UniProtKB/TrEMBL annotation:
GO biological process, one term: immune response
Family to which the UniProt record says this protein belongs: Belongs to the intercrine alpha (chemokine CxC) family.
Keywords, ordered alphabetically: Cytokine, Secreted, Signal
Major localization class: secreted
Limits of the Chemokine interleukin-8-like domain: 31-92
GO annotation, cellular component aspect: extracellular space
Secretion signal span: 1-22
Annotated SMART domains: SCY
Native species: Takifugu flavidus (sansaifugu)
UniProt GO MF annotations: chemoattractant activity; chemokine activity
Protein's UniProt name: Growth-regulated protein-like protein gamma
Keyword Secreted appears in the UniProt entry: yes
């Protein structure tokens, strides 16, 4: 009887810790999955206001490139394999090295 109570308490405690840990990560703004479901490969370079590079991490194995459009502020995921995206990234990287 005592071991059943102990085991039940242990399971409830572990479940509580797992839930509260996940909630605290989300509340801190930590993404627990890839942000990009689809990517844009068509050239939209002149509409881009800002570009964010997210390297592979424990929550997403892919490099994600998220562009914010100038006029609408909409975020668009860019295809890192598209030639025009590679040029944009190279331009950003070379301007940072100066």
């Amino acid at each position: 009887m005592c071991s059943k109570v102990f085991l039940t308490s242990l399971v409830v405690l572990l479940a509580f810790l797992a839930i509260s840990n996940g909630m605290s990560l989300r509340s801190l703004g930590v993404e627990q999955h890839c942000r990009c479901i689809q990517t844009e490969s068509r050239p939209i370079g002149r509409h881009i206001g800002k570009v964010e590079l997210i390297p592979p991490n424990s929550h997403c194995e892919e490099t994600e490139i998220i562009a914010t459009l100038k006029e609408s502020g909409q975020e668009v995921c860019l295809d890192p394999k598209a030639p025009w995206v590679k040029k944009v990234i190279n331009k950003i990287m070379s301007s940072r090295q100066r």
